[in-house]
Model the fold of this input.
Amino acid sequence: MGILFDEEKKIFKLDTEHTTYMAGLSDEGYVGHVYYGKRLKNIGGKYLLRMEETPFTPLVNKREKNSFLDCFPMEYPTGGIGDYRESCLNVRNSRGSMGCELLYEDHEIRKGKPALPGLPASFGGEDEVQTLKIICADGILGLTVTLFYSVFEKEDVITRSVSVENNGTESLSLEKVYSACLDMDNQEFEMLTLCGSWARERHIQRNKVHAGRQLVSSVKGESSHQEHPFMALVTPGTTQEAGEVYGMHFVYSGNFIAQTEVTQFDRVRMVLGIHQEDFCWRLAPGESFQAPEAVMIYSDCGLGKMSRSLHDFYREHLIRSPYKYKKRPVLINNWEATYFEFDTEKLLAIAGEARKNGIEMLVMDDGWFGKRNWDDSSLGDWTVNEEKLKGGLPNLVHKVRELGMEFGIWFEPEMISARSELYREHPDWAIQIEGREPGQSRAQYVLDLSRKEVRDYAYECVAGILRSAPISYVKWDMNRQLCDMGSACLPPEAQGELFHRYVLGLYEMQERLVTEFPEVLLENCSGGGARFDPGMLYYSPQIWCSDDTDAIERLRIQEGTELIYPLSAMGAHVSDCPNHIVGRTTPFETRGNIALSGTFGYELDITRIAEEDRKQIPGQIALYHKFSGLIQAGDYYRISSWTDQKPLDCWEVAAKDGSHALLTCVNVLGRPNVRSIIIKVKGLKPDSYYRLEGTEEIYTGEELMSCGFMVRDLNEDFKSRLYHFVCEENA
Ligand code: GLA
Done:
């Protein structure tokens, strides 16, 4: 049983296979945090609520209620009543005052997990997940707040979310509704986050926490290139294999905040939720608000264990697509090959050559509609440009399919170009503040997805094209951030809902798409990887990782991404050199080896690349066919990360049954006098024999894992190699 309640001690105990989470009730009914960490056999530790610390007991001494509230480890802190740490819920009443105090009312423990209305969320069968609902209330406001905890035993994950219901008689304003809070003692924590920029997304950043608040956030309307809705606190010296890790990850694609605060008592409060900037939700009597889901994970075996648990969790309980474990077609995308300059003939030339080399799908990127010959027009006018595509789209799709290939297409449905028919007809469909000229970015505005007629139009444009021809894949792009937040349809008091309503509108559109076209492979994208988040993963099994396709830049981008996402989710392509973003030239083989760890495809003009590169494509595709199952479902191990001093980047994917493992080594820069490097292989069966494929070398699993494997002759700049160890019993 994953969830227990001890009536006498008033403690909830939530167990996964290796972890325990405990929350308890104070005598007054405050819901406090007791413990999160290694799995415990028994319920205990209520003293961690520190109720005995005089004079902080409000029942005994009301005079000290404030001191109590500013120190009690709250499960879901509220603002305005004397807890001066970051609150999770701020409610303003109809007379304009902000204050809310939540006390326990009831609870419910059930099998399974309810869906979250309108939001992406993890799921699982009755034998896979259990849910605890702690129902709290503020009697003065007439507010009921339900804290949801779902326990995924096998994956060591606990998800949290919150629903807020107005059962009173007056209208309330929710000025902040976060999704999760974790109050703990500070263990000299370091904070690990993923940060970057366009073409440099999700680099791992780690700093010591210090007194005060440290945070990552987005107020751009999407999860963003710059910061990521994930935070982990790790004990000092945490490595891949040792150390404690407390992670929180947000199943949401809009504004967020993930914050750690070190308090005056050297305790930490970690919170995660929708950013409160420009957020204000009206809650009329009888209405409720659902906060998105937070995924919580604890590992006492370092970062590697966290990664593998999250990978399993997202594969099993968040990604819904039928492509989850299915081999994805090897695609060629024409973006870096042609940009906007293409026509049917050019695309068919690429497709013809691609097919000869074993590529299975042609994806037509931006530029096929309206008058879109550059990025300055036509978003919103989703009619095929027949000057470019003579004979229309069905003709092109038909010819591509005749070659024996599938066809995929690019859209940016959330946008409207300033130069478009749509904008001329419906200027008010663009998000803007009345009386103020909205700012353009890439010459475009953002459609107001809070409006049903706008969503319906945009959806029908996409669906109409998909209905017109047999299209197997959609790349759904989003190439600017939101600002000038104003909707022509929302009343003044609801304008603060627009950011969140936009995200809900996006989710509704993608839900319609995956429902009407379940067999279409959907890849989300946002100027590269600005909306690579668990929210989008619920709709698309893969997300374009970054516009930076340079093999070496990809090492850090993919390492940060793999830290929390399954490899099967990472859109990764081989592109041409010199690389279009950094101008670097790397061996074609290395570009292939690095893309192999993601969804794998090509993004180049195959009719124009060097012959010696083209000749390698069939071999690379054969590797993809051979290893895609392993990469999709195996256990990921990060072995080394390149630095100036140690330029070897290395990772491994091992089959869960230990039957084989693929090691990828990339030497970023050559160093003189390096003869060999020892790599300790992971995830093998110690007593079994493994052959290094393609050689006569045989090792025991124990040898490879403890003595290590000796990598030789890998000392040139950007050189890489794959090593496949196959258990002899499976050979
Ligand atoms: C974004 C995407 C690219 C490409 C362009 C097209 O930048 O990330 O892959 O589709 O848009 O405009």
Notes: The CA atoms of residues 14 and 601 lie 42 Å apart. The chain has a mean pLDDT of 97. The two ends are 41 Å apart (CA to CA). The first helix runs from residue 65 to 69.
